[in-house]
Queue: 2 jobs
Job 1
Amino acid sequence: MIKKLDHIAIAVRDLEASARTFQQILGIPPTKVQEVPTEKVRVAFFPFGGAEIELVQGLGPGNPVANFIEKRGEGVHHICLEVDDLEGTLARLAAAGVPLLDRTGKPGACGQVAFLHPRGANGVLIELVQRPT
Amino acid sequence: MIKKLDHIAIAVRDLEASARTFQQILGIPPTKVQEVPTEKVRVAFFPFGGAEIELVQGLGPGNPVANFIEKRGEGVHHICLEVDDLEGTLARLAAAGVPLLDRTGKPGACGQVAFLHPRGANGVLIELVQRPT
């Protein structure tokens, strides 16, 4: 089952400058700024009202976030939905013919994650996350 | 104050086909499909976990959603944040130099709304909504 909208990730060129921008808009500071070396990104989170805005900056050339900005400019990179049962949800989606980038969960920053293919969701990259209980 | 992430709007070419796609992904049907003639759009809402996914299809040529798809393809069109005081928030943002598309609120589908300029938010079109109390 889909529980809730977990976060919206925005691809940015300069994490510090963008964090100042969103701090101004949202009126709250980011709770954490961290590097995720396995994904070659740095991220900042703004949690409010049960969901988060995540700013994500690619580290070095050739990572997906830098490629995204190169092609499309800064903007919404993906949206993330929290599920209670990631493997069950992936099985349900695969059976329904929804195109998946990941057939099984993999470790992410906040739990087990998997991505659906944007071509099966009107161009939107959707991440599913099952947070640890 | 920003209360919560209200909804994510996704620009689509075919509302009915896209609603079937998202019903499959989310596992829930849309609660309503409605036409908003003043904005030349048709919309479908999927509420879950306190936020909504809104699918939006432009009606006829020359509307902003059709123009968006023409330029960028289908995908996330805007994100909407709920505020408790729209005019106060706009005044705070204007004073901070955040570029606004609307200096004051206007009637939207779910309350008074105003848009910030994407160039001041890393390419993301942000709507603010104050829902009626």
Note: DSSP finds three helices and eight strands in chain A.
Job 2
Amino acid sequence: MTVAMYPGSFDPVHNGHLAIIGVAASLFDQLIVAVGHNPAKESGMFTGPERLEMIEAAVEAEKLSGVRVVLFTGLVTDAAKAEGANCLVKGLRNGSDLDTELLQANMNLQSAGGGLHTVLLPGIGPDALISSRYVREIASRGGDVQPVVPEVVFDHLSRKFRD
Amino acid sequence: MTVAMYPGSFDPVHNGHLAIIGVAASLFDQLIVAVGHNPAKESGMFTGPERLEMIEAAVEAEKLSGVRVVLFTGLVTDAAKAEGANCLVKGLRNGSDLDTELLQANMNLQSAGGGLHTVLLPGIGPDALISSRYVREIASRGGDVQPVVPEVVFDHLSRKFRD
Amino acid sequence: MTVAMYPGSFDPVHNGHLAIIGVAASLFDQLIVAVGHNPAKESGMFTGPERLEMIEAAVEAEKLSGVRVVLFTGLVTDAAKAEGANCLVKGLRNGSDLDTELLQANMNLQSAGGGLHTVLLPGIGPDALISSRYVREIASRGGDVQPVVPEVVFDHLSRKFRD
Amino acid sequence: MTVAMYPGSFDPVHNGHLAIIGVAASLFDQLIVAVGHNPAKESGMFTGPERLEMIEAAVEAEKLSGVRVVLFTGLVTDAAKAEGANCLVKGLRNGSDLDTELLQANMNLQSAGGGLHTVLLPGIGPDALISSRYVREIASRGGDVQPVVPEVVFDHLSRKFRD
Amino acid sequence: MTVAMYPGSFDPVHNGHLAIIGVAASLFDQLIVAVGHNPAKESGMFTGPERLEMIEAAVEAEKLSGVRVVLFTGLVTDAAKAEGANCLVKGLRNGSDLDTELLQANMNLQSAGGGLHTVLLPGIGPDALISSRYVREIASRGGDVQPVVPEVVFDHLSRKFRD
Amino acid sequence: MTVAMYPGSFDPVHNGHLAIIGVAASLFDQLIVAVGHNPAKESGMFTGPERLEMIEAAVEAEKLSGVRVVLFTGLVTDAAKAEGANCLVKGLRNGSDLDTELLQANMNLQSAGGGLHTVLLPGIGPDALISSRYVREIASRGGDVQPVVPEVVFDHLSRKFRD
């Protein structure tokens, strides 16, 4: 049985992430979306628990099954071991992503003693070129991000920046 | 009529930027160089108004016509709308630039409701591989940046770091 | 007045090309789509005149104005001079395209004596990742290319490979 | 159940391919290595059946289970359907590979009507930077490829070029 | 006589750096490994002198001759002049590294008045994809970095994070 | 003593090659420019001996010392051994070049038993983005390549295509 872990900060989750979750959920027996955060020092736009909740709501809205969302702190390799995952999944938009992913895949493989491989899922189609960083920048300055995030995230962002 | 906006921080403008401005000014009816800054919290080496002034002086020294320089705060898409620009212009030096520009072009297009396209101008020739970040690092540590910046910038840097 | 030339082999034109034509037509006073071929030795899947006709039909179907389609043989820089174009337009999908385009932009600029600049339009959105080569391979082996080409091309391919 | 297909020409299979096969076999319920060739016009260094045999021998030597090797002609998407595969697996060494794979992944997804996703496995470690093309060039000119191919391939190459 | 300088922060040195040092030491008459730091404001995981010491120990353990390790503050070009180096050496893992190196090579060449060229050594083989940043992250969170750093660094990290 | 070999087809040599030769000649004790060709089946625009002659003339015109030009057939690694070279030098213009060079560097290192390293010299400045393929295409169709090739090559091309 293959249990895949999709780690990230998801601050917030966007349609590009959801496309990866949809593909990964169809390919692996179980998919664990793992939200990295530091409960002692939350530093994102949203807290870890808020980010988790938004992913859960979006995954439910898309009726994706076999997906579990968890929080983790520390190393991805430790989180994978704790959750019983036997591979990592990452989205891949372009060459810069690839350069980072090859370094991380190698470091994770070596520090995990060789058993934890990384699977890269290409971002293609209309949701391919989205970035949480730009979602935050645009939303926080009053721009429209509705086309690139799920409804639950749009609602959270609207509430946050209406005030 | 095509009004192009070339947004950036231009901290400070260098010969690579000026090559882009020269090409863009020859291609579009109007070119607006838009200097992004935050007047409430200036964080660059030069303030927004200083950066604007240096661009204006350099553009005049090169006798480029049809170029207007403005300051903006917030979203590029809002600045474009406010100035009546119907496309964005960006310089492109390499694959890392491209990866960033594709993400930004997509986010700007989607958040602007589809009408604001991005035009990429390749940096080629002797002024192709210059970076404001390295200009600042080199100048602030006493190195020579005269070959890569316009005279007005060289003078400003010399004054700043002579003291 | 800016007259842009979009050169290529367009064997055959696909939705990615049409997206570039649409953007370029909106940005420049005139757009010339220039189909490179060798009438003495047609080597593509379609002849030059067939490729031109399909582009014309697709451009008309999309109601794009200010677009002219021409055939050329030999150098792009000579075609640009002959047609009065003052810049070249190319689509840009990824880093490999960029590496080729930077070489070509430099060679064209230098061999044209400095006046012919190249403008790169990023391929983003659902039609970003299409390639004429794969259209030909898939269609010639009986695969479905309807989602990635205009109707007129789909009809031509269907007729060609039904036989 | 996830049945993955790893298509390629494998002319000949090398240690980089075998590393991908090993990882993919551990992740998916079944792995089909699909050797593309044209029986009417064999054009590689080895015929399709020879390439298949070498893969089978190498897979057996590495004691990998759940791997089946098949020949196919024509479209990868048709081969996947014929073999009941629900995803494609490709190795990924660098940005040039990525640019090709994103185009192919998109074309395959669209021409297959949306259901056939591509999974990219990063080539990392000592067998990361091998290429069949260079294996052929080096071996055919008397160079040593023993460090980069399985024993069965080394034997075949030795016999072929001893003569 | 060619004296090469290999500048970096080396915080800490890892097996990828050591592979570059080994190759460079074999190619040039002298190799100076130059550790950049700011003694007035040490900001790394290790101080400059600690980083230097670890490199010296690792170089000695590998029995590499012709290698000198120095500290520097400020510009690489000034350090090169001060040490009598006539070229710079950098490791190159991927396209992102390349984009940065081309910018730096050009800026260093221009600000040094043309005489200081940069030589890039490709990272290939089992130690190709290592990064000091990930070494720090993994070690500081209790992960195993033994496969990717020399023994002296492993000892330092173990002591630091045991406490 | 370091003897570097710069292999290539040089069909014909251009200003980008000469920039690399100039830098390499200044860095290594000896530089051997090695022109790969097949005397039994010359397939380039110029024969091997013609290409060699043009390089020799251009090197002499630039008064570069310590440079020897040779012809070779077969493997680069064999040529290097035959000429006593202990490293290879290649020019590097962009990420596509890098991807090819990393594969070749690895294959050459492994097939040579580990001792033959590759040094990459970045193409920067006005002669950075030149390609022999485009020189051939432009010159053969009557375009101007004078700005990108040495005088001796320009003369050869003029004579060849005047007829």
Note: Chain D touches chain C through 18 residues (CB under 8 Å).
